[in-house]
Amino acid sequence: MFQLFSCFLAFLLFNNILSWSPSNFTYNAGQDYSLVWEDDFENVGAIKATINGAPAYAPNSANWVLNTGNINGGLQNYTNSIDNAYVQNGQLNIVAYKEGYTSAMLSSVGLREFTFGKFAAKICLPYGQGIWPAWWLLGNAWNKYKLYWPTVGEIDILEMIGGRQWGTPNDKIAHATIHWNNASNAMSPLYHASYGTQWQTPDGSLLHNNSLVYWTEWTPTQISIGLNEFTYFQFNTTNITQSINPVDAFGGKWPFYMILNIAIGGSWPGSPNNSTVWPQRMVVDWIRVYQKP
């Protein structure tokens, strides 16, 4: 019986590997959704620099602001330098350097904010020890309600911690997580709660090896997260065990904005070491937001 079960598991794994064909995947939001916004990273404005022999442009200022400084801990220093974030050949490049651990964080706060929908981005990730790329959503309830994290809610569509931690090859693993205030819909009392799951490439390849579509669907009752054709995170937001209910963060009371960044170091990924290759790039082909009519 055990031998039979082992053969069945091996068959499932082999079948999963055969079906893993990232280059042949095309994202489809489904007939219930319509495209309401996209950034295909076309050249906008004046040429800001020549990088790798080609003209480089700043990210579209109608869509993105560049946050600066050391944000959320870690070693990175986010800058607004064209070297750390630029558009070239129809792609957004976010680049992290060893010198000064400079990097970039792009935010759509105050510019492109949405309540419910599907959020998708096609991304080729960086890799290596101490490298921590992310594609995520954050609630904006400051102007109207004077609320901030974690009460406003956070949806981490993608996080990856590069290198190896506790023997785990992290460059093969995508993490999906949500955060909220478990105690109230105000700032007091405050108890940070989170729930997350992870997904590993079926063939053991690095996430860096392919441009993959990382997406979330946020509805009034549920948050789902996946990559390409795989859905690996589902969470009912209307009845959270051992939490206040309902949680305003995910109920549509305020919109969420988008963030893309490469963090460096910190307690989760650990610091870069001699194995880390520099510079590291997060290359984004496009970002799209879909909503139901």
From TrEMBL:
What keywords tag this UniProt record? Signal
Note the superkingdom of the native organism. Answer: Eukaryota
Query: From its record, what is one biological process in GO terms?
Result: carbohydrate metabolic process
Q: GH16 domain: from which residue to which, for each copy?
A: 26-293
Pfam family of the protein (one): Glyco_hydro_16
**Annotated GO MF terms:** hydrolase activity, hydrolyzing O-glycosyl compounds
Query: Which residues belong to the signal peptide in this entry?
Result: 1-19
- By its UniProt entry, which InterPro entries does this protein fall under? Beta-glucanase-like, ConA-like_dom_sf, Glycosyl_Hydrlase_16
Q: Give the family, as the similarity comment puts it.
A: Belongs to the glycosyl hydrolase 16 family.
PANTHER family in UniProt:
GLYCOSIDE HYDROLASE FAMILY 16 PROTEIN (PTHR10963:SF55), GLYCOSYL HYDROLASE-RELATED (PTHR10963)
Q: What is this protein called?
A: GH16 domain-containing protein
